[in-house]
Structures are given as C-alpha cells and as structure tokens.
Amino acid sequence: MNPANWIRHWRYPNHLLLAVPWPVFFGLVATGYLLLNLLFAGLYVLDPQGIARVDGPTTSFAEAFFFSVHTLGSIGYGALFPTSLYSNLLVTAESLLGLFVTALVTGLVFSRFSRSTARILFSQEATVHTYNGLPTLMFRLANERRKAIIEAQLRAYLAIDERSAEGQRMRRLLPLNLLRDHSPLFLLTWTAMHPIDPQSPLLGATANSLQAANAEIVISFSGIDEILERPIHAHHHYPLAQVHFDHRFVDMMIAQDDMPPQLEFANFNQIEPCSNSLIPPIQPGATCA
C-alpha cells in the first residue's frame, strides 16, 4: 500500500492496521504507545508531589514517563506509587485505558495472523492467438502456496468506457466466458482461456477501438483455503499494453528422453510470437501455428 492510500484509509483505522505491512503495523503500534505514555507523563508532572519515592523533591518527566509505562502495562514494581487524589485518578484512568489498548492490539495481531491470503500469482501478460480454430484470449495463474485451494472460481471481464445515446459516459464490465471457470482442486497452475466467438464482446474489436474505449481485462479469483477452511480472494487486471496479439505462452510441460514430463515454472511468464498474424478486427478463423 502506498502512502496516499494510507492517508485515505485513516478514516477507517481498523482497516488500515489490517492492511499495512507488518513493519508498518509494529511502527504504528509503537508510535501510539509512545505518544500515549508521553501524554500521561505530561499529566503526571502537573502534580509534582503526586508520586512517592521519586529521587528528587519533585517528579521529573522521565520518572513520570516510566511510571506511566508501569501503569499502562499493569507491571506494578512498587517502587513508585501515587499519593494524591489527582495522581490516583490518573492511574485509574490509565489502567482502564490499558485494558482497552491491550485488548485492541491483541485482537489486531490475532486478526492479521489468522487472515487468509490467496497468494495467487498471475502471468505478467495475456495473449491472443488461435486455439481450436478460434482466436482465444489466454492468461495464466499459479498457486504460490502449493497448498490446495478447493472450489476455485475464476471470472474475467472486459472493462471499457461507453457512451449512451444521450452522451452519458460510464464504465462497463462485460463478462468474458471462460472455457473453464471452476476447479474443484487448484494446486499448481491454471491457463484460463476465453474463446472470441460470436458471443464474445471482443469479437470485431481492433487495437484502436480497444484503446479508444480505455479497455482492460479484469480478473477475479475466489476459493477456499484447504488448511484454514476460509474463503480467499484475489484480483488482477491486464491493461491493453499487456495483452499481446499473435503471441502464445511457452509450454510449461517439458518432456525429456526416458523421463516423465516435468513442470517448468521458469516458463510461467514466457511468451513467444506466432508464425502467422491475426488480422484486425479479431475474427474467427485467424491462425497461429
């Protein structure tokens, strides 16, 4: 998450603390803890004789700070203790606040640890080439955890800008039907394919028309983590610049002499040009040898 998004998420601090990376989370918690103790230290020094057994005739700011740390954490060494009504009231308020802070941070840490993450890797590019006689949009995804995802669902959409007859502009998501949009058990890789048939919103499209419509391919993935038994989600998008026509993915199954075929993950993002070209607009019957 970039800094601009952090500022926007301050309206919902619980979402922010769940979304930021772990180092940032610990930094925010430590900063809040420090500021809270500095605040109470400043309140304690308003009553210079309110804390007993300090080194000097009055309470120093450092002594007030560490007394606040002991109180907020319910440590209670017993070396320092409040003597005045004002200090006792501050200790009561800080102790109560400490209960809420401890519960809040514990809940956030547990939520972050228990949160399901998809760890789905999408190919860097998508391709369009002929498959079974039809121009076909293809992209790849892989399960980085190598743990099974059950009941995996994949959806693809063409996002374009359109204008109504009245001139109103809107962003539309047109579904792209996939040859296989469901997998009962997703373990390694998945090549998604959308045939550009007469029902496809890509039929007849050209690079110029897609560019004018600010087109991009939007991908949505969902499934259930087999270990945690919780839903997981992932999404990706391919701008038009990342959709390569007349290219195909390099085969990931490598066959060697007297050896069973092996899956070569180094080819996951590798594409190669086709020997024949698709002639825009996209039409059935284009070839890619």
Features:
alpha+beta; 5-stranded antiparallel β-sheet; 6 helices; 16 strands; elongated
Question: Can you offer a commentary on this structure?
Answer:
It contains 6 helices and 16 strands. The protein has helices spanning 3-9, 13-19, 22-44, 61-72, 85-114, 207-212, and strands spanning 51-52, 81-82, 120-122, 126-131, 134-143, 149-163, 169-176, 182-186, 189-195, 216-225, 231-239, 243-245, 247-249, 253-256, 259-263, 271-273. Helix content is 29%, strand content 33%. The strands form 5 sheets. Strands 3, 4, 5, 9 and 12 form a 5-stranded mixed beta sheet that branches. The radius of gyration is 30 Å and the shape is elongated. The model has no long low-confidence stretch (mean pLDDT 86). With 289 residues, it is of the alpha+beta class.
Nutshell version of this structure?
The chain is 29% helix and 33% strand. The chain has 289 residues and is of the alpha+beta class. The relative contact order is 0.12.
- The quaternary state of the protein chains shown equals single chain
Number of strands: 16
Helical content class: 25-40%
Helix count, per DSSP? 6
Beta-strand portion reads 25-35%
Task: Specify the structural class.
Answer: alpha+beta
Order of helical and strand elements = HHHEHEHEEEEEEEHEEEEEEE
Based on CA inertia axes, which overall geometry fits? elongated
Given as residue ranges, the uncertain stretches (5+ residues, pLDDT < 50) are none
Mean pLDDT: 86
C-alpha end-to-end distance: 42 Å
Largest sheet: 5 strands, mixed
- Computed over alpha carbons, the radius of gyration is 30 Å
